[in-house]
Amino acid sequence: MRKTILLGGLLALALFLFGLPAKTAAIPAWARKYNMNCNGCHSPAVPRLNTFGFKFKWAGYRLPEEIGEKQEVANVSDYIAARMAVQYAYNKTEGSPPTTSQFELDNATLWAGGAIGKHFGAFLEFAHNEGGTELVNHVSGVWGQAENYAGFRVGQMHWLLEGAVAGFDRPTGLAMPTPLGNQLTSALPFVFDSPQLGLEAFWVKGRNRLSAEVLNGVMIAGAGNRVAKDVALIDQFIFDKQGSGFTAVAYLGRIIGADPIAPTLTSKFTRLAITANKIFGPAELMAGYAYAKDTDLPIAAGSAFTTTSVKGNGFWLYGGYTLPKSRMTLFGRYEVVNPNSGVADQGNTRFVLGSVLPVEMPEYLRFALEYTLDQPKGPGSLKQHGLIGQVMIVF
368 forms bridges with which residues in the sheet? Predict the structure, then answer.
């Protein structure tokens, strides 16, 4: 017991000195509404969702048993929450001085949302960080019974990441797996980790959620992005009460004028991904694979152009263990990304080690620490070390 407390104290001290942020969307307002702690929906720590949390989100921010029951907006504190994350970031390439070493206020976020009336719900997220401001806002509706219902979402949405099962949820640690959080090919600038404007229709039966989405797609300055709509098909299935499951997604997209040399050319891209995880008591195993193909890419050929295609892929393996008494989670991840499988010595291998310590109040305080080692492929490539951490409070 003393060793666990000492370890937690050392981690807390280290995180006070070394911190960095992750995107989260825990809403303590909903915990207040239902008189429960945040770990009712999140485990092993905010922001990761468990089965109860997924079902609450799928049903439009209400309990599935409440579908069709009128929800009164009687207490504003049941619908509004906020977050602050303070960080320190350190990055260094072997043989060179550090490129980053600084404290930052990573983000400040306000949320408002919840179930409204018998069938509807709304969600608004306003987050500001050093990279700018992100706004997510959508309206949803659900009709049916607790174990069999359908509905829609429309607006600026986390269309996949930050709410899907087995790896497409927010990470236990800080950074998303590289194949999801970064560009998967060397050609078109699509990433899974980006909110999009669009419309989603979904059907939930038991522990399975099937959805189809029409989205605006990738935005490129000066290109006709809004003319070409993208389509995504997603299936999520939950195995057990702990939140084990799998997600499969197919994304078909188009970009008009992706390159100035061919402003009217429509380039096409496909993204396929599948992930699965299994929780064994305090331990968790996860694996994921993502595939990418970009076609009709322009290449200058004198005064004209020709077209080509690029394929890329990536995968990751994750293992985590939560200490029962302190609820501290220790985890590791192995990631590989190849942005152009047709060219030798491309891509990157990443090793990740980290720890998360949640403190429930019943609002939420969270400490996290994460180390990354990147090994780019190719002659002359140098290893890159990163240390990120986070002190986050949600209330």
Answer: 356, 390
Nearest Cα residue to 236 out of 164, 187, 178, 310 = 164
pLDDT for position 2: 39
pLDDT over 70 at 212, yes or no: yes
Q: What is the pTM of this model?
A: 0.87
**Nearest-CA neighbor of 87 among 99, 105, 100, 101?**
105
351 vs 153: CA distance, rounded Å:
36
201/157: higher pLDDT: 201
Q: Measure the CA–CA gap between 169 and 232, rounded to whole angstroms.
A: 17
pLDDT digits (tens, 9 = 90+) for 234-257: 999 999 988 899 999 999 999 888
| Number of domains observed in the structure of the chain | 1
SS3 for 170-206 is CCCCCCCCHHHHCCCCCCCCCCCCCCEEEEEEEEEEC
Alpha helices in 71-165 (DSSP H): none
Strand partners, 121: 115, 140
Domain that holds residue 91: 2-394
Q: Tell me if residue 37 falls in helix, strand or coil.
A: coil
Whole-number CA gyration radius for the chain? 21
Q: Which of 170, 159, 66, 162 is nearest to 121 (CA)?
A: 66
Cα–Cα distance for residue pair 67/65, rounded to 1 Å:
6
Domain of 220: which CATH number? 2.40.160.10
Task: Give the separation between CA 356 and CA 369, rounded to whole angstroms.
Answer: 7
